[in-house]
User: What shape does this take?
Amino acid sequence: MSKANAEAVGTVSAKATSGIRSKRSGMTDAKEHVMKFIFTLCGIVAVACVIMITVYMIISGAPAIGKIGIIEFLFGDTWYAKEEQFGILPLILTSIFGTCGAIVIGVPIGLMTAVFLSELAPKPLKNIVKPAVELLAAIPSVIYGLLGSMLIKPVIYALEEMIFANDPTHQFTGGANLFSAILVLAIMILPTIINISENSLSAVPPEYREASTGLGATKIQTIFKVTIPAAKSGIASGVVLGVGRAIGEAMAIMLVAGNSANMPGLFNSVKFLTTGVVAEFAYSSGLHRQALFGIGLVLFVFIMIINFILNGILKSNKKTAKSEKK
Amino acid sequence: MNKKLISIAAVAATITLGITACSTPGVESSTGGNASSATDDDSATGTLSMNGSTSMEKVIKAVNGAFEAKTGNKVSLNLTGSGTGIKEAIEGKCDIGNSSRELKEDEAAELDATVIGIDGIALVVHPNNKVEDLTMEDLAKIYAGEITNWKDVGGDDKAIVVVGREDGSGTRDGFESVVMGDKTAQYAQELESTGSVINAVGTTEGAIGYASLANVDDTVKALKIDGAEATEENIKAGTYKVQRPFICAVKKGSENQLVKDYIDFILSAEGQELVRAQGAIPVK
Assistant: This one.
């Protein structure tokens, strides 16, 4: 149908322009329209994927939640597939705590690095640090996990043995616990936070800094009182993207988190929403598998919320930018 | 316009053909329980349907591949767990039910069980661990979190890190059904593969873990249980207790030649070699 239209339009426009460009034949016109059609099709692919994923997640996740009961599913504190107990509260809390922990550690370091890169670093040093940060973003997550289990786990294990030396009630995790997972996540979200914060810091007009130093402020005072506040919405979107990355990460933390569905505690073996799905999917069947889809749905909703927050920040960012211009 | 219509028709035709082609074996396999009685020469050809244990997946798949290649029969395999496999074998919904646990009494009354291999589960600790031997009782207590320090079972003063497999794993199911009784296991680490367990135990000094005997290497130390070392002889003799049978269960009085051929094949030297190659212990 659309092709027929395209041909019709093609001949009309060919007639209209034939006087001016006699060389342009109906063939080229048809090509134009075919390409346009292909571009549109490609554009639709992304939208179609989003719609398909949304529909699929709801179709495959909702039945389990319905069967288990939404309250029981979201607020039940026992995940034990063998006895058909599917409460994911420990998993939800672990994902939230883990992400918060990663933010608490990752944001200060990331922000300071961004400040260093954009405000303080001498050019040769910046030329080393910046590519290094970008490389950090490109490293596959499973490698973070491997390094975490080789380097971080033994250290945390030693720390755990020191702290809980005389505590028989503590279940020793061998370093595979929430703390290790938080450390790995914190390192993983660094590049996201650094890159976006650095861009928004660099975008702060130099006049701001000049005005500040002109009034007698030192460089550090300028950074904290002027530059960072001026770039705050960019930094905030970096943090939100970091949260998105942390909450969706599975492979890296599966190797360091211990994966028992306990309530989150710094030295407890914990299971994240993501790792729960990855670890158990292979051998699951029946309601267990459906429940894993249910977890997927919960995770999906989390990511959606984070995206809405991000959009909100970006919108308010544009608004303030406009009002500042006025 | 016409061209487009033709191409759509062509695509539709291809898809229809594809679907028909794909669904044909499905139709065959669903009637496989009865269809296999057609005999050519002295051995039967047709489709054999099986259902059951996920733990037996590797062994059964290896045997099925060889059986199909050798006899030209088809074997359709579902993996929905021992319980379902046994149930379907009793109900006649499949020819063979695969079970990785002993049959219960009421099940054994309906089915002929053939043990085709044994799964030995080794208990492994860090090589530096001084403990050599555990009783089944202590083992259950360790996994239930009632014993938390190695000094309570004759080792150094070191906290025990309880390592195991993820929920749904066949090895975990096997271990818990043999060892835990009515206790519930409290894991510090639930890992998603045998290799991960071996690696975690090999790098964590206080750790204990379990894995199929075939996967144990020298980065970890296998424990004796009730004084018996985890060896093939001890497992066959039954003195090493952390083990479970791999069973092919067939409805009593079944005259299905194909089923007999299959069982004969799996118990033949060739079949048993395949069982061994997949990490289980052959019975012959």
In short: Residues 8-42 of chain B have pLDDT under 50 and may be disordered. The interface with chain A takes residues 1, 4, 54, 79-81, 145, 148-149, 159-163, 166-170, 173, 176, 184, 186-192, 196, 200, 203-204, 206-207 of chain B (CB under 8 Å). Chain B is about 40% helix and 20% strand.
